[in-house]
């Protein structure tokens, strides 16, 4: 880590949460999700505002790169805003990087949260400013869930951003879902998604390790390879997860993940990390899960760091919130994954 860590002030009841659209234009397309998300957060005691360009729809993005970056820059400067939550992911957050005001972000540290493509912004912000940001819920996905936010997701979000105490030991959720209910047809407003029993964590390699949490969506992470925004993985606990593929009804193919892991190995990442944490695969069947496990074991066969698989973060629900840059621990003997350092002040 090249910069001193910066911590945002903890979120408190009555605070203002601002919503931005750094990539995809979902906020402009799914007004019923927006309304439900506002209601879900207001019921919990928070005020919700939106970036100037949050509702723009310009093809597959929410405005130009300059417009999307402008919202983030302005909201970091806005003293009334205590947290910035991304509406949804996408595939074009990387376009914002030349336009972000790093000084404004550094001078006004605050909670910044989202997942998937927001990986690009998390890692760039942490690299350029040292700010602890949060790989966690997005507004349209988790905070706009029907009929309300999943308790497990909300519990771990609050542990991460609303208390100066460390999150501590992580407990797996008792259930999970990756069911898709079409937002365009408002099927997501007709019933809750079906739950599946969670079999818990799987240790692909035993061991004990401590290190800083660094990672995100593996597809988005690859956008930064070879740039000045690519993170340092020295002594890190590398967490990663798998997004949807060509269709929202299927996950990124195992063959693609295999190539990404090869890229990371060739980049020297596996020589530097202390441990690996893999999120539950999105929309994978049993055969794909088995193939993925074999790929992970094969690509990391020359290393001895512990690997924890099937953890509650990423594109399935419910999810934990992971503070990027904060120290964590893996210990297979104790079946332990914990987040040991504070994430806010």
Overview of this structure, please?
The structure is a single chain. The protein has 345 residues and is of the alpha/beta class. The chain has 2 domains: 150 residues, Murein tetrapeptidase LD-carboxypeptidase, N-terminal domain (Rossmann fold), CATH 3.40.50; 165 residues, LD-carboxypeptidase A C-terminal domain-like (Glucose Oxidase, domain 1). It is built from 10 helices and 16 strands. The strands form 3 sheets. It has an 8-stranded mixed β-sheet with strand order 6-16-15-10-11-12-13-9. Strands 2-1-3-4-5-14 form a 6-stranded mixed β-sheet, sandwiched between helices. Strand 4, helix 5 and strand 5 form a beta-alpha-beta unit. The model has no long low-confidence stretch (mean pLDDT 97).
Task: Reconstruct the topology from this structure.
Layout: E1 16-20, H1 26-29, H2 31-42, E2 47-50, H3 65-77, E3 81-86, H4 102-107, E4 111-114, H5 119-129, E5 134-135, H6 151-161, E6 168-169, E7 175-176, E8 196-197, E9 202-205, E10 208-217, H7 218-221, E11 236-241, H8 254-266, H9 269-272, E12 275-279, H10 286-299, E13 307-311, E14 322-323, E15 327-331, E16 336-339
Parallel strand pairs: 1-2, 1-3, 3-4, 4-5, 10-11, 11-12, 12-13
Antiparallel strand pairs: 5-14, 6-16, 7-8, 9-13, 10-15, 15-16
Helix pairs in contact: 8-10
